[in-house]
Automatic annotation (TrEMBL):
This is CoA transferase subunit B. SUPFAM superfamilies: NagB/RpiA/CoA transferase-like. It comes from the Bacteria. The keyword Transferase applies. It is an enzyme of class 2 (transferase). The lineage of its organism: Bacteria, Pseudomonadati, Pseudomonadota, Gammaproteobacteria, Oceanospirillales. The gene is scoB. It comes from Halomonas elongata (strain ATCC 33173 / DSM 2581 / NBRC 15536 / NCIMB 2198 / 1H9). Its EC number is 2.8.3.5.
Length: 220
């Protein structure tokens, strides 16, 4: 069965390490803030100028002025800092973010990402994604494996305008966790109950399948 958005966020949270500074993009990545393991300390960064972003607020904690880059209301953890977006982008462009989690419309087997424009559709636009893919070496993309019409989003070559070229090496979809190596998607884990055959059928790009592909777990 395909992963839920929450399960995808839980799986990404396993990639967090103690002391990391982490930027969470719009969409599924924002949910990662709710699943940071209790035994590690990470600082979540938002490009609108917040370092130390916390989980989503309860109704009693709601502050309409405390938002992330996607204009969602958030909390701030102890020790958080609020500053200008110029300083926030200086942090991103200077390579001071240890891990970036982004959404995407398309990823191809060469590590190219398209995440900001679909011709004829009104979407949020580029935001800080271009800066993030240029300033970070450690990026995880989260996305559905295929569109609602069943068309693969893991391609031989991106069709949409690129956000960045050759910058993605890890992808988590609702079906699988994959790494991009030597011009191919390498299947590392599959969602519980999802077969290798289904993943093959929904991957348009070159796919390398090891002899054993374990089912995904969500515990740290």
């Amino acid at each position: 069965m395909a992963l839920t958005r929450e399960q995808m966020a839980m799986r990404v949270a396993r990639e967090l390490e103690d002391g990391f500074y982490v930027n969470l993009g719009i969409g599924i990545p924002t949910l990662v803030a709710n699943y940071v393991p209790d035994d590690i300390d990470v600082m979540l960064q938002s490009e609108n100028g917040l370092l130390g972003m916390g989980r989503f607020p309860t109704e009693d904690e709601l502050d309409p002025d405390m938002i992330n880059a996607g204009k969602q209301t958030v909390t701030a953890r102890s020790g958080a800092a609020i500053f200008s977006s110029a300083e926030s982008f200086a942090m991103i462009r200077g390579g001071h973010v240890d891990l970036t989690v982004l959404g995407a419309f398309e990823i191809d087997q060469h590590g190219n990402i398209a995440s900001w424009m679909i011709p004829g559709k009104l979407i949020k636009g580029m935001g800080g994604a271009m800066d993030l893919v240029a300033g970070a070496e450690n990026i995880i993309c989260t996305m559905t494996h295929a569109s609602k019409h069943g068309e693969s989003k893991l391609l031989e070559q991106c069709n949409l305008p690129l956000t960045g070229a050759g910058c993605i090496n890890r992808v988590l979809t609702d079906l699988a966790y994959l790494e991009i190596e030597d011009g191919a998607f390498v299947l590392k884990e599959r969602a519980p109950g999802v077969s290798v055959e289904e993943i093959k059928a929904k991957t348009a790009g070159r796919l390398v399948v090891p002899e054993h592909v374990p089912e995904m777990t969500f515990a740290p």
